[in-house]
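Hi everyone,

Forwarding the result from last night's run.
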Amino acid sequence: MKRIILSTIVVVAMTISTQVQAQKNPMVGGAAMYATKDIVDNAVNSKDHTTLVAAVKAAGLVETLKSAGPFTVFAPTNAAFDKLPAGTVATLVKPENKKTLTTILTYHVVAGKMGSKEIAAAIKAGNGKAELTTVQGGKLWAWMEGKKLMLKDEKGGTSMVTIKDVFQSNGVIHVVDTVLMPK
């Protein structure tokens, strides 16, 4: 009887520990994201970001995104990549298109750690719109639509942040629903 009670207590404690851990670490693509891990080490666990991870590897950006940073990454989901014209991703990950792929991926990265509070402050300071400079050298514009953080790229496309403030050891990720495109 004591073993059953002890086993039940251990199972309950483990369940509570797992639930507390999940609350502290945002879930992205079915996986907890840990503030102690870097951007790449977290992203590889998200089932919603397999295309992004493959693209980062094809572009040779793994070591960069594992470095100290800090970086703010607007991370497109697999569904965001699926919105691109058929065959686009397959073409971009070919070795001969590495430069173009790198340009697109680095357009999704801003130097520094900009959580939603910092972006909101920039939007407020910019009278409702913030201009962000990407590490690719292009511009993104951020604004709020109600409680939704929106982004506009240089080609006029828009993307919505669906999960904000996924803090990493070397920055922060904001999950977006559309791939952003530079000029």
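Confidence is low (pLDDT under 50) at residues 10-23.

Cheers,
N.
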